[in-house]
Automatic annotation (TrEMBL):
Species the sequence originates in: Streptomyces roseicoloratus
InterPro entries in the cross-refs: FAD/NAD-bd_sf, FAD/NAD-binding_dom, NDH-2
Keywords: FAD, Flavoprotein, NAD, Oxidoreductase
UniProt EC number: 1.6.5.-
Gene Ontology terms for molecular function: oxidoreductase activity
Tagged with keyword Oxidoreductase: yes
Region named Disordered: 437-463
Name of the protein this chain belongs to: NAD(P)/FAD-dependent oxidoreductase
Family named by the database record: Belongs to the NADH dehydrogenase family.
Regions of compositional bias (Pro residues) in chain numbering: 443-456
UniProt-listed Pfam families: Pyr_redox_2
Top-rank taxon: Bacteria
């Protein structure tokens, strides 16, 4: 009996999950006959549908419904929860650690493969801004989204109960750095949520909250076009959101955001969404990279000059064959990532069967962005929409793209219920420290204070 072809998928995000899902279908006979096997190595047992993170932060969608459990979806794949640290593609081995290896203390283990799909995704690209690592929060994971929601409501609680105007102002100032999708949508949804929540505080008004968007370039949401970007700025400023263009964050030490225009903003909230970079693993693969650190690929989604290696998504520089200018690569967004996985899975299956490969070619269809409840902008197939129609298109598009019927139904049900009932305004920050209450209860009681009088003589009056 011949050995099965071992396909290793590194990463369980957009590209990793969708590629493995489509490989299950493309290689259904091979998997049944055990002439092929698929292993997915990922740090988390779920895929996060990131376009829904702003709505999860605002409470419109339950956090568990913006993630897709890999073991349920990839039922014909082997799922390994762990982290790949390096690759030796010449020997077809990956070095990784798992939760079990950490418990066993055995160190890293090696996993052999025949075909490699490298899809580790991206991480936040940070700059050497003083205080950034100590005080800022990102917005790429569901944990960050829920943590930010809890934090915003907690700041409103602090502002409501303090008598110190400096503490109150800092608690009610929220600074978002980055005018792309993540920054604008997160700010817009959270501002919507906080404005609604303020009605339940006897001494807070929506205008007491200060929201600041800091963008280094001269525009926001470049994907929706210049005209719609200008509309988005007008919409945000009409809601008393301070949009600073051509401005950078220079420091956030001591809980003071210092901007390049000289503005100093005492704040307890700095959200960093400025940009992303390929995951650190890419540098340890030994595969060819471009000047931005992405893996150099061909239009067939093979790694350039390397056999039996494939890549797509944020960490891959894939030529855009539909662009008129040579050397143009596909934008690192979900639209390309999901469509690339279809061609990637078909090409891997074709390669195993000795069939010809095809190029990835997809003209950019356009973009949609939410600016809060019932507000949005869109530029799709040359048509420009704003307000409610754009917001509706945003929801319809992403509902169609979120994986599995189960998730589609749950998200639709939550949207329906949120339209019938009031928003939830509960902060569950204690979830981040679930053992705190028990540790307090289990701690030994404090030692009793010495009742002796000041002169140390029990029962005798001092002096």
């Amino acid at each position: 009996m011949t050995e099965p072809v071992r396909i290793l998928v590194v990463g369980g995000g957009y590209v990793g999950m969708y590629t493995a899902l489509r490989l299950q279908r493309q290689l259904k006979a091979e998997l049944r006959d055990r002439t092929a096997e698929i292993t997915v190595v990922t740090p988390e047992p779920y895929m996060t549908y990131q376009p829904f993170l702003p709505e999860a932060a605002a409470g419109s969608i339950s956090p568990r419904h913006v993630v897709v459990p890999l073991r349920r979806v990839l039922d014909r794949c082997r799922i390994v929860i762990g982290e790949v640290h390096s690759l030796d593609h010449a020997k077809r081995t990956a070095t990784l650690s798992t939760l079990a290896t950490e418990e066993e203390g055995t160190g890293h283990v090696r996993l052999a493969y025949d075909e490699l799909v490298i899809a580790p995704g991206s991480v936040s690209r940070t700059l050497p801004v003083p205080g950034l690592a100590d005080h800022a929060i990102g917005f790429k994971t569901v944990e960050e989204a829920i943590g930010l929601r809890n934090h915003v409501i907690e700041q409103m609680d602090i502002a409501s109960s303090t008598r110190d105007p400096a503490i109150r102002d800092a608690a009610l100032t929220f600074v978002f750095v980055g005018g792309g999708y993540a920054g604008v949508e997160a700010l817009a949804e959270l501002e919507d949520m906080a404005r609604y929540t303020a009605r339940y505080y006897h001494n807070l008004k929506p205008e007491d909250l200060r929201w600041v968007l800091v963008e280094a370039t001269d525009r926001i949401l470049p994907e929706v076009g210049e005209e719609m970007g200008r509309y988005a700025i007008r919409e945000l400023r009409g809601r008393n959101i301070d949009v600073r263009l051509g401005t950078r964050l220079e420091s956030c030490e001591n809980r003071v955001a210092v901007l390049s225009d000289g503005t100093r903003l005492p704040t307890r909230t700095v959200v960093w969404t400025a940009s992303v970079r390929p995951a650190p693993l890419v540098a340890a693969t030994g595969l060819p990279r471009d000047e931005r650190g992405r893996i150099v690929c061909t239009a067939r989604l093979t790694v350039d000059g390397v056999d039996h290696a494939w890549a797509a998504g944020d960490a891959a520089a894939v030529p855009d064959v539909t662009a008129g200018e040579p050397g143009t690569t596909c934008a690192p967004n979900a639209q390309h990532a999901v469509r690339q996985t279809k061609v990637l899975a078909e090409n891997i299956a074709a390669s195993l069967r000795g069939q010809p490969l095809k190029d990835y070619a997809h003209s950019y269809a356009g973009s949609v962005a939410s600016l809060g409840l019932h507000k949005g902008v869109a530029h799709v197939y040359g048509r420009k929409l704003k307000g409610y129609p754009a917001w509706f298109m945003h929801r319809a598009y992403h509902l169609s793209r979120v994986p599995t019927f189960n998730r589609k139904a749950r998200v639709l049900a939550e949207w329906t219920l949120s339209g019938l009932f009031k928003r939830e305004i509960v902060s569950l920050g204690s979830l981040e420290h679930p053992r705190a209450e028990f540790e307090l209860a289990a701690a030994p009681p404090p030692a009793p204070k010495d009742p002796s009088p000041p002169d140390g003589t029990p029962g005798e009056p001092a002096g």
